[in-house]
Every structure is written in structure tokens, then in C-alpha cells.
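pasting for ref. prot 1 ->
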Amino acid sequence: MSLETMKNRLNYYGGAVRQDRMIDEKQVSLAYAIKNSFQAAKMKEYPALNKLERGLINPVIQNENYDTKLLSISHAANYGVGTIFKWENTDSYWLVYLEDRTELAYFKGNIRRCDYIVQWVDGDRQRLETPIAIIGPSVPSLRTSSSMQAKVAQDFPNQIVTVMVPDNEQNKRYFNRYQ
């Protein structure tokens, strides 16, 4: 085999550098998994909900406080931290909150289910909304008040809520420390 033929063959399989070939092979593997896997998902980016993308959503953690999954999708979809999308298969909204930067072949990140949609009216009388993921204890802690009798304990509702929202200007104006 001539050097020119070998060079053409390497370029066909992803390039002369071994890492480039491995990245190309992983992209092909992701495309195959999206086509044939049980974890394949159809999703549309929020708020437009017009462009359908396909990716893999694998379970990571599910408990009474939150549902976290792992998203794998092509870089061409332009998903990143802060992206909200609607998972068409389950009719639920999800927020990308963490990216795995060690994966070079495709976007890989952790996502959390958004159980609520918050709506508000801004200063220009426009109605805005955003899906949010709430993180917090499933059972509020029991506190007692010093003004009560020692035998009676009263359950005060938890007044602190941790909310995950995309980092954009409309959310920064609405969600603040005292909101």
C-alpha cells in the first residue's frame, strides 16, 4: 500500500491523528445509539419549540427531591448549560445545568426536570414565563416557638426555596434575593 493510499484511508476514517478518529467513531456510535436505543429521546428547545432534535437521555439520580438524568446530543444542536427543552416523549421540561467538558465528540451534560412554570408580568406589562427546577428537602424540619407552651410544637413552613433557572436578563430581573 502506498503512503498516499494510507493517507486517504486515514482521512476517510477521521484523520491522521488517532484522537480525531476516536472522536469520529464516537459520533458515529452516538448516531447509531440515537437511532436504535431505548433511551433515544425527541426534544424541542424552549421557548420556540419548533426545531426537533434527537438525543439520548439516561437515568442518573431519581429521588423524592429531584430527577436528574444524563443528556447526550450532537454539538450541532447547540445545547449548553442553561438550555431548557421539552422532552417530547414524556411531555416534560428539562434544564441543562452541568456540562461534562471531557467529552469532545458530542455534548454531554446533566439535566434536571422542571416541575413548575413561573409566570410574571414585567415593567413593560409583558407576560413572561420560565420553567424552573426546585431543589429542597422533601420534609420540612420541625421547629418550636419559644412563645408556645413546651408541650406543643408547631410546624412552620420552609421559607427558603432553591430554584434552578437559566442565567438570562429576564430571569435576573425577576428572581432576586427577596423575591
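and prot 2 ->
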Amino acid sequence: MKKIAICIDFDGTCVSHEFPNVGENIGAVEVLRELINAGHHLILFTMRSNSSKRKYLDEALDWFNDNEIELYGIQSNPTQHAWTSSPKAYGQIYIDDAALGCPLKHDENISLRPFVDWDKVREILKFNEVL
């Protein structure tokens, strides 16, 4: 299996939608760890940023650290600067609740907005031999 870079959104993807706060667990941790254990690289690709009022990006990074999920890159792929000046993070797969075709789950006990269905994402990753 080829090792790939996977860009991961945060709100609605790793956690439920609760911005500006960090949302609830929606099942991402186990699958993200499986991806890392398979040798893949995770790149956080989020709209969150730090401001003088609040460190929104740092709060997301704390979530990854607290869940012992190693990030290869934050907002960019560390290797892409050798071959492009594009600001878009390069990855072979993008997992984002706003992406067309990304499987979503609706559970009003967790969030009023839909969020990524990680059980279905795992199935897709296995079908495509990523996991």
C-alpha cells in the first residue's frame, strides 16, 4: 500500500460543529490513528487560525495532541515547497464535511449540524485499500 498525505478538516470533520469551541467526539480518533499506523501522513487543513482574541488553531492542535494523533503538517504539506509555491495544502485525499460526497451523519443529540460519519469513511478507505 502506497503511503499518502491526507488533508483533514477539523470542525464537523474531527469533532462536531461547535465553533468557536472545540466540538464533541464523533469517532475520528480511532480512524485517524489507523491511518497513521498504516504509515500515512495527516495534514490539518482548517479555517481555524489564531487571533489576538483567541487561539482557535492552537485549540485544534491541542485536540490532536490530547488524542495522541501526530500531524505531518499544519495548513501545508511540508514537502510541497520543493516543487510548488501554491498555498493550498497538497494531499492525495481530503476529508472534509463540506466536500461533495463525504459521508455525513445527522445526530441532534451531538450537534444540530451534520458531521462526518467515520464508520463510513473507514469503509471507503478500506475499499480503496488506504486502510
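The first strand starts at residue 5 and ends at 8.
The helical segments are 28-37, 56-66, 118-127.
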